[in-house]
Every structure is written in structure tokens, then in C-alpha cells.
Design brief:
Radius of gyration: 17 Å
Shape: globular
Number of strands: 8
Largest sheet: 5 strands, antiparallel
Order of helices and strands: EHHEEEHHHEEEE
Helix content: 25-40%
Distance between the termini: 11 Å
Oligomer: single chain
Strand order of the largest sheet: 4-8-7-6-5
Number of helices: 5
């Protein structure tokens, strides 16, 4: 497995014509994030000992990786990353990065179940420096990025049930290193439509909060 992380501006000159077409009508910030993420992906390919190449997208916008590779890209303001692995070693990958800021009013109710919100209230009492609503959002994003290439089924946020656990680290808010970290598991819910047949399949992931960022990852061997 190889990872590349960057906070540098994106370089559109390295993009292939197919990649540039994906952002032809995008706003400048989106173009920058896209190019930076693809740059991270190319450097991760090099770290794996592979020839760096383009990463186009399918009709849903999901990255299409070179033959024999799996990977995931994420970006938010000030942070861009890509993780890649050989398909022979890892079946699926999903990563996400989000600012450690609360979701807008009303969003949590749209992306979570009543049971998830009850568990979040318990976790919030322990993890006072973590915006657990945004953590739930990020963990589901990472799980969906890993899930879609496996089954070709798009999951909505309410189509999966998330369970989080975590602990506070010694650094405290704003310190270097992790403020908090933990694990999570995601499975399709009973109401998940086409994914219901996979409701006994569970994805496991890890999360951390550091440098005011929430980072989540799922790797399925």
C-alpha cells in the first residue's frame, strides 16, 4: 500500500485529456482540488513501483484505476491525499478527509438513523474535541468509496448503519498528533434497497482527528 498527502496547489498540466474533460466546466477551487488529488494518485503509483498514469472516472464520477490497482482519493481545503494498493493485496480502499467542524443544521438528520444519533450523543460526551456528526459523515463517505467498486451499487447515507468507537489521545485540542482516534464498522441497513442482500456484510475502518482534520479509512483485504 502507498499513500501520498499534499497541501500544494494542483497542477492541471499533468492531467490527461480525459481527466481535464472531467473538470472543464468546474469552478477554480474544484479544478485545483481535482488536479491535486490526481497528482497525489500519480505519486502514490510511483511509490508502489508503478508507472504513473491518468485516473479517469466512470459515469458516476468514481475513479477508474489502472489495471491491477485499487485506490481512493480525498480532498478538502488544505489537504489532498491518495492511497493505492495492488488488487492482489487489497480488495477495496476508501478514504475521506473533512474539517473538524459541525455539519450544517438539519444535515445530520438526513444522513443518519435515530439509532446512530443516539450513539453519537454518547460518543460526544467522551470525545469533547471531536465533531462527531462530521465524523459519522466522513466514515460513511470512506465506506461508500470502498463499497461501490465491490458491488457497483450506490449507497445513500441512510442505506448504511454505522457504529463508532474511539478514545481521547494525550495531545489535547490543537496539539500535534491525534486528538482522538478509533474504529468504526458499517453495514447495509434493512432499508437499503438493492444492497439489502449484502446486509450481513460489514466494512471495518479506522478514524483519527488531528490538525483540525477528521480522517477516515476503510481497507478490505
Amino acid at each position: 500500500m502507498a499513500e501520498d498527502v499534499s497541501d500544494a496547489p494542483g497542477d492541471e498540466s499533468v492531467l490527461s485529456p480525459a481527466e481535464r474533460a472531467l473538470i472543464a466546466a468546474a469552478l477554480p477551487e474544484r479544478r485545483d482540488q481535482f488536479a491535486a488529488g490526481r497528482g497525489c494518485a500519480r505519486r502514490a503509483m510511483e511509490l508502489l513501483g508503478e508507472e504513473p498514469g491518468p485516473v479517469p472516472a466512470d459515469a458516476t464520477g468514481a475513479p477508474v484505476w489502472p489495471s491491477g490497482l485499487v485506490g481512493s482519493i480525498t480532498h478538502c481545503r488544505g489537504y489532498r491525499a491518495a492511497v493505492l494498493a495492488r488488487r492482489a493485496d487489497i480488495t477495496a480502499l476508501g478514504i475521506d478527509a473533512e474539517p473538524n467542524l459541525g455539519l450544517r443544521d438539519g444535515v445530520l438528520e438526513l444522513v443518519s438513523s435515530a439509532g446512530e444519533r443516539a450513539r453519537l450523543r454518547e460518543l460526544a460526551a467522551l470525545l469533547t474535541h471531536v465533531r462527531v456528526d462530521r465524523l459519522l459523515f466522513s466514515a460513511k463517505e470512506a465506506a461508500y468509496k470502498a463499497w461501490y467498486p465491490l458491488h457497483g451499487i450506490r449507497l445513500g447515507f441512510r442505506d448504511a448503519e454505522l457504529t463508532l468507537s474511539g478514545r481521547v489521545c494525550g495531545n489535547g485540542a490543537g496539539g500535534s498528533g491525534n486528538v482522538a482516534e478509533g474504529t468504526f464498522r458499517v453495514r447495509p441497513s434493512e432499508r437499503s434497497g438493492a444492497a439489502r442482500e449484502f446486509r450481513h456484510e460489514v466494512l471495518h475502518g479506522r478514524w483519527a482527528v488531528r490538525d483540525f482534520l477528521i480522517l477516515t479509512a476503510v481497507a478490505l483485504e
